[in-house]
Amino acid sequence: VLIRPPGYKHFSKALVAEPPCTETQAEAIYAAVRSQIGKPYAVEAIWDFVTDDNRDPQPTANNKAWFCDQLQAWGALTAGVPMVNPKTDLNTITPGDLLLSLALVY
Q: Which pLDDT tens digit goes with each residue over 10-55?
């Protein structure tokens, strides 16, 4: 996990969504996510996502390794602002889960 500076890469599209939360909750989300800086990228989980192989998801939502969507959902859940259904297994979360989240304000 690392922090990339704004504008580090040009993307043809960017979607910015903010969970409905208080300033205190937003600070708690950022604190949770920042606490994971330095942890490895969850390559196995991305491979499962790319190959659509969720039969045996890699246990990455264990605070040892992350991929972007999983880390965002975990940070929000940790701060008490669930971005996805709390019953959703963070080991199988996808970008679509976050996009379809009714908790997000676009």
A: 877 777 777 778 999 999 999 999 999 999 888 776 676 677 665 5
Q: Would you say 97 and 72 are in contact if contact means Cβ atoms under 8 Å apart? A: no
Dihedral in degrees, nearest 10, Cα atoms 84, 15, 26, 78 = 30
Euclidean distance between CA atoms 3 and 67, whole angstroms: 13
* Position 39, amino acid: K
pTM of the model: 0.75
Residues 72-100 pLDDT 10s: 888 988 898 888 877 777 777 777 788 77
- What are residue 96's DSSP bridge partners? none
CA distance 106 to 100: 11
Judge contact between 48 and 57, C-beta under 8 A: yes
Q: Indicate the SS3 state at residue 41.
A: strand
